[in-house]
């Protein structure tokens, strides 16, 4: 028997979400700006910096409710 305790995510998380994309999707990404984490960057046990997506200040403001915070789990 495992020594790990099992919990439901809803019992240990303050917020569970699936993220968001800016209006216009991939076509609205910029060449530089604020880094926007997309699902392709999140891999098993690692984070890929390949094909980084960037958004501008206005897009970041619109997505402020899905900002990554310290100790967040992806």
TrEMBL record:
The keyword DNA-binding applies. GO terms for molecular function: DNA binding. Keywords: DNA-binding, Restriction system. SUPFAM superfamilies: DNA methylase specificity domain (SSF116734). GO terms for biological process: DNA restriction-modification system. This is Restriction endonuclease subunit S. The lineage of its organism: Bacteria, Pseudomonadati, Planctomycetota, Candidatus Brocadiia, Candidatus Brocadiales.
């Amino acid at each position: 028997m495992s020594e790990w305790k099992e919990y439901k995510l809803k019992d240990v998380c303050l917020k569970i979400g699936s993220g968001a994309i800016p209006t216009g999707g991939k076509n609205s990404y910029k060449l530089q700006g604020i880094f926007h984490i997309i699902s392709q960057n999140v891999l098993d046990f690692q984070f890929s910096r390949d094909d980084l997506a960037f958004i501008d200040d206005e897009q970041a403001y619109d997505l402020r409710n899905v900002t990554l915070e310290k100790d967040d789990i992806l």
